Amino acid sequence: MTGLxxxxxxxxxxxxxGGFVSGxxxxxxxxxxxxxxxxAVAGGAWALDPWRLGRRWRLLPWATxxxxxxSWALSPVxxxxxxxxxxxxxxxxxxxAVARALGGDRLERGAAVLTAAAAAVALVAxxxxxxxxxxxxxxxxxxxxxxxxxxxTFFPLALPSLSRRGSERLFGLLAALAIGGGVVATRSLLGxxxxxxxxxxxxxxxxxxxxxxxxxxxxxxxxxxPRVERVIRGDDPSAWARLDYAAAAGxxxxxxxxxxxxxxxxxxxxxxxxxxxxxxRPPGELVGDVHSLPLALAYELGLPGALLAFGSLGAFAAVxxxxxxxxxxxxxxxxxxxxxxxxxxxxLGNAALTVLALPVAAAVLGGVALAAGRPAGEEIAGWRxxxxxxxxxxxxxxxxxxxxxRAHLAYDRAREAPxxxxxxxxxxxxxxxxxxxxxxxxxxxxxxxPEGAEAARTAAEQAVDVAPLWLAAGVLGRDAELPxxxxxxxxxxxxxPLGAMAPFHLALLAPGAPRAPALAARAIAAEPRLLAARxxxxxxxLLVAALAALERDERLDRGWRxxxxxxxxxxxxxxxxxxxxGLVWDGSNGAPGSRYLFRRQPWxxxxxxxxxxxxxxxxFSIPSAARLATTAPAFFAPAGCAP
Length: 643
Description:
- By secondary structure, the chain is mainly α.
- It is built from 26 helices and two strands.
- The chain has helices at 5-17, 26-42, 60-74, 82-101, 106-126, 144-154, 167-186, 189-202, 210-233, 237-255, 266-269, 293-323, 330-346, 357-373, 385-415, 420-433, 438-448, 453-463, 467-479, 485-495, 501-509, 516-526, 540-552, 558-565, 593-598, 614-617, and strands at residues 579-585, 605-612.
- A two-stranded antiparallel ribbon has the order 1-2.
- Helix 6 (144-154) runs parallel beside helix 14, helix 15 runs antiparallel to helix 16 and helix 18 (453-463) runs antiparallel to helix 19 (467-479).
- The chain is globular.
């Protein structure tokens, strides 16, 4: 039964604790953290050399953990990485725990069950209803790139069975077809290329089934060709976005090259380094990661921490390759290393390590490599002094995670509360248990209204660079007539240069100021429907000045300007209907902030709303300037937000 534990672990994190969607719930997070801590205690016997690197390199993983700890201590947002720091030793020890579970004669059977588990996940992906309408396979992770990365990790495990006979060979054939088909169904470019490379690298060892493996590789390559062609032509929005994220990461690394921004800091700090890109970046975009693991590690841990991390991984692969001549299962060792290589290739364009299914999959496959690389007959001792060190650390980690878990549970209860007073009470408990987490304080402030303005400002300061939190704080501060409202709205405008609501409210905060017409023009350009805002009836001069500023601004497309300025806002009598425009938080077409930035369940809200006349809004068909590729980026430069 011990040999089944690795397969159960990956299934639990794939379907419950580690998915992009499922893993954001409180009970999923608590369960996953508890399992990781317990599993790491089982690997504590190897704590002094967890990856079996030998005397020269055995401290590399712990040096990486130490570098991450220094980066966390110096981070501007230490709360963002607190859970990561507490769980990082568990991930270092997890491969050793998996290797112990697969010791002795349990290795082959455990690897077969793990392959079957991966095939089951692939079948779930192939059964995704979105495929029938031409979409991508998202299940069970909630995102096609994550599904592709996970499946690529386990595809090579099916290859050793193909060289055998009878039922084992049939099992390998079915598993390879299922997992390979799942990757193809995701239509992830990096996943398809990784699958093709794995097939080309592994077909020689498949013997009689080499045609099948080579066919899977060629099929993946064929599906990747059209996307590669679009990338080369410059017609791929995803590729352009990744270039923008990479440039932002480069600016962040240059700002803090030694210690980085801190573990987990990317979603809370990246906005200050993102340059506006009309036609490439949508307004209100919230970026959860830089979509490249090497850049993410350098951005968060600094260059020394990133070098230590890559040095540890390189040493692991090199030592396993040296063990191959004496390995008890050389083909299984090759398959594990090939799977880790495929995951590493996909992570060149993805860095969603907060989705725990991926790091757990990597750790489990690393454990398979450890177990396969050990010579036959050599077993690990039942307990060693390092086990006590690991157990002590896990007790400390559990004690520090307990209040965070209570706060997460309170947040989930607040989401489901039938009345606002109940939600406010539960969010108050969350803030008390975890005062450093910005989302709890911000959500409570939004429910309180102007009364919660100071709390909203504190939450925005804790999150540092999350534009919607600054927008909400500025609007609440304005309603409460607090002196810092203009500074908060300015900060929101600088962090989201393509957004409309921050410059709109900033212009109305002081309509007679010299910069007010330019700010109002900026808001109307980003969201033309604001021409129908009811507030213009009280500020007609500001509207006229804003339209004049738009008409003479040569940085905007001439045809677009003519169409917008020609749109006369009439005010016919008898209108009774009302509507609102605002920044949507956690809506289906709005900013998915809770999951992307805070790994929490979504909770719909509208921030910075302003009343509009719906019959006028319905007449608009003009695209926002922020979505026009012909718009000059200089018009939406962050410097233009200054009051």
